[in-house]
Amino acid sequence: MTSYLSEQQITQFDQQGFLLIPGAIDRAQVLEMTEGFARVEQSIVKQHGAGHIESDILFDQSITPLSLGRINQLYRYMPNVVLALLRNNAILGAVEALCGDGALPVYESLLYKHLGSSYDVIWHQDMLHPRDSRIVTCGLYLDDASVDEGALQVIPGSQHQPQRFSQAGDAADFDQRAVPLSVSAGDLLIHDVMVLHDSLPLQAQQQRRTLYMEFRSLAHLQNNPRYPSAWVEQRQQLMSMAQQDKLIDAEVLYRHEPRVEPANYGMADIEQSG
Questions:
Q1: Residue 272 domain-assigned (yes or no)
Q2: DSSP 3-state assignment of 184?
Q3: Beta-bridge partners for 111
Q4: What is the pLDDT of residues 153-194, one digit of tens each?
Q5: How many Å apart are CA 266 and CA 123, to the nearest integer?
Q6: d(Cα 138, Cα 161) in Å, to the nearest integer?
Q7: DSSP string spanning 228-260?
Q8: Residue 146 · residue 182 · CB < 8 Å
Q9: Domain range for 168
Q10: Are 75 and 82 in contact (CB under 8 A)?
Q11: Is 53:46 a contact under the CB 8 Å cutoff?
Q12: Under 8 Å between Cβ of 70 and 113
């Protein structure tokens, strides 16, 4: 595939740790997705009220009425959306330009931020690794995220090494140095998994939904003991089926779960994961 990104964009990503791709999907696609997710949300909340608990569903318990906080293993709930995004030219093109041909998604989830929620997204690095290849988090925004409405903010250049910090002692300094990233619904915001970032609470906007996928190179996953070969093969099949617009059995897709590396929230003992 011809590189979707320019050399300047790739250099910017490597230097600053993030890259914005405006209009990865258009407004009509955003509307179609949000309407579909609304139906799924209603079904999940109804089932939860009937006592049906799913381990991949997290609720925001800090607000009323009960609201979704995160849907993990998103393919179980919206397989056609996940497949469509995995063959989206903007997403796939940017990912392969950064991670190489054959890059694979490690997870797919939908994150919710609600007005009045006490659940904060505090400063962190998504994971730590030896930095022998790029590992990226792709955030596809289904709602606008302005600076005044708790947009993601990052510390440019912080991705080059593990960060030792204290939430209590360093957060104020980070807030002073942070660069807020205002985005619109349909935009794709890609960040290095080791760039320091957080987001502030909503001020007036009722909610924000962001669809997240993390991508890694095939070589990295094949050489990482946390990721079984059977899991890698299922992820390769997922990408193949996405190109053919064919469904894969969710139970098969999620049968072999990897040991995903933990995030770094400033703990004193830092261990890089291979």
A1: no
A2: coil
A3: 70, 210
A4: 999 999 999 998 988 889 889 999 999 999 999 999 999 999
A5: 8
A6: 20
A7: -HHHHHHHHHHHHHHHHT----HHHHTSS---P
A8: yes
A9: 7-253
A10: yes
A11: no
A12: no
